[in-house]
């Protein structure tokens, strides 16, 4: 329970007031211990207080905390005799992951991709080739949590924690955007106060307050796609708070007729179309994306 859901649970007796007191005590105790209320901040949470010393310390900690789990055939460190290196995967260059998502997300002072670092370290002595990797089909599965009354679109629902059950597959996205197509990147946002997972496209982020970026979800086709593949329109629906006499904000990202019927029955209203998904999967070894 979070936010308005927690308040309703306390009022209804589902969550004892003593449990709420204990939760508050655990939050406020360290705040008093460290003088948060004795010395209130005169800045803002969005202020950039990074200094060169902080950046250097972060670099040292990251290097010291790096663990080499396996060094097959003694590949590292790279011998001076090596003249050719292949680097694979979008994490190595086009979409490097430097930190966690959600509340653990930070904006780094700089990012050096693995590919760029290897090229610099290798120098002119060897040739470094980058391959983003094969294009795979990502099933965009509709998940639902009865406890949270929340819909969640994801290939694997890694954030589900046994709270969600699989309903249906809405369509298929790409792991990598095909060449020659202006793809729409699918991204996941989370609003703790509303307990709302919201999947949208990067070009149309949430306008309501309280949403934080979690991680990318793959690539969809643009709405104006007119290629040979069968597609289905990915839509965003929002709970109609007026019709449902509810204050809770909940997004429902969907595509199939069954999901549209579920949204209509649940009191949701259509807000916008955002992209297109493939109707069928594909074998990345059988064909290239057209």
What can you see in these coordinates?
With 290 residues, the chain is α+β, with helices and mostly antiparallel strands. The chain is flat. The chain starts with a helix and ends in a 12-residue tail after the last strand. The strands form four sheets. It has a three-stranded antiparallel beta sheet with strand order 4-3-5, with no helix packed on it. The protein is built from six helices and eleven strands.
Q: In short, what is this structure?
A:
With 290 residues, the chain is of the alpha+beta class. The chain has 6 helices and 11 strands.
Mean pLDDT: 85
Overall body shape: flat
Number of strands: 11
Number of helices, where a helix is a run of at least 4 consecutive DSSP H or I residues: 6
First-last Cα distance: 45 Å
H/E element string?
Answer: HHHEHEEEEEEEEHEHE
Topology:
Blueprint: H1 3-12, H2 17-33, H3 52-64, E1 84-88, H4 114-122, E2 127-131, E3 137-145, E4 150-154, E5 165-174, E6 184-191, E7 196-201, E8 212-220, E9 231-239, H5 241-244, E10 251-254, H6 257-265, E11 268-278
Parallel strand pairs: 1-2
Antiparallel strand pairs: 3-4, 3-5, 6-7, 6-8, 9-10, 9-11
